[in-house]
Amino acid sequence: MMRHYLLTASLWAGAVTQANVAEHSQRAQIAGIDLITYHTDVKDVVVILGTLPAGDAMAGSGNIAIPTLAGMMLDRGTKTLDKFAIAEQLDNVGAEIAFSVGTQSVEFRAKSLRKDMPLIVGLIAAELRTPAFRADEFNKAKQQFIGALQASAQNTEARAQEAFSRAAFPQGHPNRPHTVTEYEAAAKAATLDELKAFYAKFYGPAHMTMVVAGDVDAPQTQAEIGKAFAGWSGGQDYVRPATPAALTAPVEVSVPLADKPSVTVIIGQPTGLRYKDPDALALRVGTAILGSGFTGRLMGIVRDKEGLTYSISAVVSDDSITDGRWDISASFAPGLLDKGIASTRRELGRWWSDGVTEQELAARKQGMVGTYLVGLSTTAGLAGAILTNIQRGYDVNRLDEFPGAVNSLTRNQVNAAIKTHIDPAKMVLAEAGSVSTAP
Q1: Could you tell me the pTM of the whole model?
Q2: Cα–Cα distance list, 397 to 27, 113, 339, 407 (Å)
Q3: What region, left, alpha or beta, does residue 254 occupy, with left being phi > 0 and alpha being psi -120 to 50 degrees?
Q4: Residues 151, 2: contact at Cβ < 8 Å?
């Protein structure tokens, strides 16, 4: 979402040759942080990923722009180093540190040589523990955030996503965003005192997770992190709604944006499922058969056969911490909009009523497992997979179990999950672009 502040991160590659993830990792509580280390055969390179619960959802009834602005301030200087001194130290060793703010988390990423890992850990700790929060940098951050929001206001995909999520999820659910207009007003009104109060409440090691992968020594890494974060306290848990989101009737919403060459369309609904719930994996596999890549049904029919769109896909998402969403996303020329929606709904209905075939399931299993294993073949990919699985409530050994979990699914399980958790008669249809006003 455009409301999130994201610092560009590189594609950090490095071959990972070990097969059994759990056997080559160590997990420990260090200075209140859930720390996972993983040693790979890549020489001299270390990747660090981490998250703590301080994302947009934590704003509550306060200023909704503050979580993003707080994340934007982390790399703008500490109490002992200004941003130029930090940049110089990173440049001198060829290292990188980046922060981003999402719906529930602040995420940090770093890459360095092994010999420089103590320096990088120290800088991350300083940026998280003792940000300077200078007034001039705060004003710059506000202007940058407002500029990003104004650009987002004219982006058909961002506006369709906003409209869809607001219709699919109830007030107070973490997956229900505020409008871009509300964010812009909040950013303009935000004060440094509000930011400092938010930081004091939500930043700390409680519920923080860190993954360090590459040419690492677990005891040494634990010692460095223990030293850098010793004495830090505070932090809050993630927001977990007591009741999953559900729709009782279909909803249609349109966001008119003048002079756009295409209309972004999203059709879908909340799933009521978290990633770890029964049926969640079966629904994911079935959804991939419908709309993942060029081998999905939607691309094969709506795009290739009928020529109605360049891009169309179906996904399950936003379900690592809370119940998530299921949706089809497509882009249509305004003159093909009605035909495109009709074709998409037809294929959705056929998928729901007839289910998937044995041949489709076998091919998709093979593709999903292959893609998964390729993702683990880089240090950054492996670290990201470990972190994501920890957030989903699994232990590290889930990475070893995932291929077997996919391959054990039966056609009956997949089709039952589709019928149980998806209802084409109760969906949100969100459009943004050259369309008329909402019904």
Answers
A1: 0.91
A2: 11, 27, 46, 17
A3: beta
A4: yes
For 4-36, what is each residue's pLDDT tens digit? 333 333 333 333 334 577 678 999 999 999 999
Q: What is the pLDDT of residues 322-342, one digit of tens each?
A: 999 999 999 999 999 999 999
Q: Could you identify the residue written with the tokens 């989903």?
A: 392
CA distance readout (Å), 218 to 109, 120, 290 = 19, 16, 43
Residues of the chain with CATH 3.30.830.10: 22-229, 251-433
State how far the Cα of 249 lies from the Cα of 352, in Å rounded to an integer: 18
DSSP letters for 206-220? TT-EEEEEES--HHH
What does the alpha-carbon distance between residue 127 and residue 129 come to, in Å, rounded to a whole number?
Answer: 6
Cβ neighbours of residue 329 closer than 8 Å, sequence gap 6 or more: 157, 160, 264, 265, 266, 312, 313, 314, 315
Spatial separation of the C-alpha atoms in residues 319 and 353, rounded to whole Å: 25
Domain boundaries 22-229, corresponding CATH code: 3.30.830.10
CA atoms within 13 A on the CB side of 26: 14
**Residues in the chain, total:** 439
Domain 251-433 grouped into CATH 3.30.830.10: yes
Element (H, E) at 112: strand 106-113
